[in-house]
Specification:
With 322 residues, this protein is an alpha+beta fold. It contains seven helices and nine strands. It folds into two domains: 5-180, no CATH class; 188-315, Immunoglobulin-like (Sandwich). InterPro entries: DUF1616.
Length: 322
Amino acid sequence: MSPTVDEIPADRDLVGVGVVVVVVAAATAAEAPSAVRLPPVFLFLLFLPGYVTTAVAYAERDREPWSFVVLVERFALSLGSSLAVLPILAVLSYLVSGELTAWGLVATVSGYVLLGAAATAVRRSRRSDASGGGRGSRPFGSREEASASVGWSSGRLSPLTVVLAASVVVAVAALGVAVTVPSHGEAATDLHILTEQGDRLVANEYPDTLTADGSAALTVGVTNEEHRTTEYTVITEIQRVQVDGRSVVVVEKRRIDRHVFELGHGESWRERQEFEATLTGENLRFVTYLYRGEPPENPTTDSAYRSTYLWIDAQPSVTAGE
């Protein structure tokens, strides 16, 4: 004998809604891997906004016992409602924070879902009081009411239902991937080298020749666009390299400086680096390595989060009389 609605404890569905919200918020805060984060996020975006929207609408109405067709139709109704609600929530998130980020969308959807769940609980309690507690609380109205509102048949699962459900899943899943898997341009750090031109810092007219008894000055800059506070380490070196086709081999190097600092999102750091020609000859370069957190003992271009360099020729000093 299949269970009926009356046999399902009241408001258990709202407890499940709260659990999903907590799981998604925790996974986002912990920056869990995509394989762990995506399943609850898909449920969070695909289903919950539409579910609480429909639950509020039908909170005071009767419904019939669960069956496969009823479950699929109500799931599709929730998906369709989510597709209608999500763009509005995304725009609201953008207007509040000035940008559309995963954290912003999760916070906005969580607020909407929890508010909808609370409103559903209040409306169900009113219905229970009005009916004398004879019936349990119900997340949806009767199947006839839901079917009439979307034009589904009441006896079987129609092809229209299947097509609608599949199309909604694909559309909202694409949105879920877009906001939970960052693109290369969404989170980044800018590393740059500047020179002084009067009272300005510019990205041109770099020094390309240095004498052994002279010095040069460059300004190294970092801008955090990671959407979170990040600890950085900047290492600068003078290197002698050997170029063979497309391969570059470091044969000798001298450390210039090392800086460790922390930047919030949108903040910048700049440091003037004055250095001497501790190495002389051709095929020399001024190299800057940027790491997030602690760098390895031997920094390289491959291990660095960001790196940049300038070619410099360092000539031996000219002695008097020559």
